[in-house]
């Protein structure tokens, strides 16, 4: 793959609302389909995140009109830990575009937004399989196997 094919744009979801149905579908399919949540409910929540505030917000990675991936920054992704905020959530990269730096760019952008908004730490949940991906970016495991996920944190750089 040449470098031109590897380039992509990160855009605020509010500036690229045409991607909302695709983002909702990926989130629903990956995390909510088997829990009885409707895809339309996910889309409604995404549309509520179209405000200019940093939390909640979402970014989409794309090449023109081609969806490559997305990530959210939300107040809480884990009801058992309401005091932890904000959370990088629903990180998704299309399978054919993985290993192109898209997921890394999305996660870094979400963490940067958290820090720019005055938070000194950001959180996320990851499976054992995905934890090393985040650890390579400096995320540290705070708790292992909480509801079958690991809770990770990233502190604001000095």
TrEMBL record:
<dbReference type="InterPro" id="IPR000182">
    <property type="entry name" value="GNAT_dom"/>
</dbReference>
<feature type="domain" description="N-acetyltransferase">
    <location>
        <begin position="14"/>
        <end position="157"/>
    </location>
</feature>
<dbReference type="GO" id="GO:0016747">
    <property type="term" value="F:acyltransferase activity, transferring groups other than amino-acyl groups"/>
</dbReference>
<keyword id="KW-0808">Transferase</keyword>
<dbReference type="InterPro" id="IPR016181">
    <property type="entry name" value="Acyl_CoA_acyltransferase"/>
</dbReference>
<dbReference type="Pfam" id="PF00583">
    <property type="entry name" value="Acetyltransf_1"/>
</dbReference>
<protein>
    <submittedName>
        <fullName>Acetyltransferase (GNAT) family protein</fullName>
    </submittedName>
</protein>
């Amino acid at each position: 793959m040449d470098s031109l094919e590897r380039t992509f744009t990160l855009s605020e979801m509010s500036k690229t609302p045409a991607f909302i149905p695709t983002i909702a579908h990926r989130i629903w399919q990956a995390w909510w389909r088997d829990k009885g949540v409707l895809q339309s409910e996910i889309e409604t929540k995404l549309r509520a995140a179209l405000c200019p505030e940093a939390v909640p917000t979402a970014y989409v990675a794309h090449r023109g009109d081609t969806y490559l991936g997305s990530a959210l920054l939300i107040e809480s992704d884990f009801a058992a830990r309401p005091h932890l905020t904000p959370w990088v959530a629903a990180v998704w990269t299309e399978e054919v575009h993985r290993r192109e730096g898209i997921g890394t760019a999305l996660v870094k952008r979400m963490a940067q937004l958290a820090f720019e908004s005055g938070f000194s730490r950001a959180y996320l949940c990851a499976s054992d399989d995905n934890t090393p991906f985040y650890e390579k970016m400096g995320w540290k495991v705070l708790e292992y196997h909480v509801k079958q996920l690991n809770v990770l944190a990233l502190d604001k750089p000095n």
